[in-house]
Amino acid sequence: MEIFQWLTEKESFESRNDPIKTQAIIDEIADIFSYLIRLSDILNVDLEKAFWDKFKKNAAKYPINLAKGKSFKYTELQ
User: Fold this and answer.
1) What is the model's pTM?
2) What is the pLDDT along the chain (78 residues), one digit of tens a residue?
3) Is residue 2 part of a domain?
4) Could you tell me if 50 and 74 lie in one domain?
5) CA atoms of 1 and 56, how far apart (whole Å)
6) Are residues 11 and 40 in the same domain?
7) Looking at the structure, do residues 36 and 11 belong to the same domain, yes or no?
């Protein structure tokens, strides 16, 4: 999201306390959602199916007992 592109992690976190920035974030999320819906319609992608398929792939790549609380790439967990 462009809003966060040049902010530090701290600045990004603190932006939620600013009503103007919060509204800009909400608007950006709505834009992203709109683009996603439109693109999935054009490409005939079932978003719910795509989500659950990816969710299952990630669950296999990142088993909770190995990945929880870690930021390793999945290949480092094997």
Assistant:
1) 0.66
2) 778 888 888 988 898 899 998 999 999 999 999 999 999 999 999 999 999 999 999 888 887 777 677 666 656 666
3) no
4) yes
5) 26
6) yes
7) yes
